[in-house]
Amino acid sequence: MQDSHVIVALIPNFCEPGCTVGLGYVDLAKQVLGMAEFLDDSHFTNVESALVSLGCKECILPLHDVMSKCGVMVTERKKAEFKRRDVAQDLGRIVKSSISRFD
C-alpha cells in the first residue's frame, strides 16, 4: 500500500467509437504534478488501470462506478470551476510556492 496521497482530475470527451480521457494528477507526498490524454472504452478500463497505477485516493469527477470499484473517494465539482484561462495563473502559483520551499 502506498503512503502517498494522489488526487486525480478526469475530463472525458465522449465520441464514437470510444472516449478520449484527459487525466491530471498531483502526488502530494512526492510533490509531483502530471497529466495524460488517452483513448478508453465504454467500461473505462484504462482509467481504472491509471487510478490503480497511481495509487489514487481521490478523484474529481463523477464516474462513480469506476471510482467505487477502485475504492476511491469521489469529489464532485461544477464544470465552471475548470477554466482554461486560469491554468497559467494557477500553475504559476503552484510552481512558485514549491520553488520557494527549496530556497
Automatic annotation (TrEMBL):
Which branch of life, at top level? Answer: Eukaryota
Q: What Pfam families does the record tag this protein with?
A: MutS_II (PF05188)
Q: Name one GO molecular function term.
A: ATP binding
User: TM segments?
Assistant: none
Spell out the Gene3D superfamilies in the cross-references.
Answer: MutS, connector domain (3.30.420.110)
Any idea where the DNA mismatch repair protein MutS connector domain is?
6-93
InterPro entries on file? DNA_mmatch_repair_MutS_con_dom, MutS_con_dom_sf
* One biological process term in Gene Ontology: mismatch repair
Name it: MUTS-like protein
What is the species of this protein? Artemisia annua
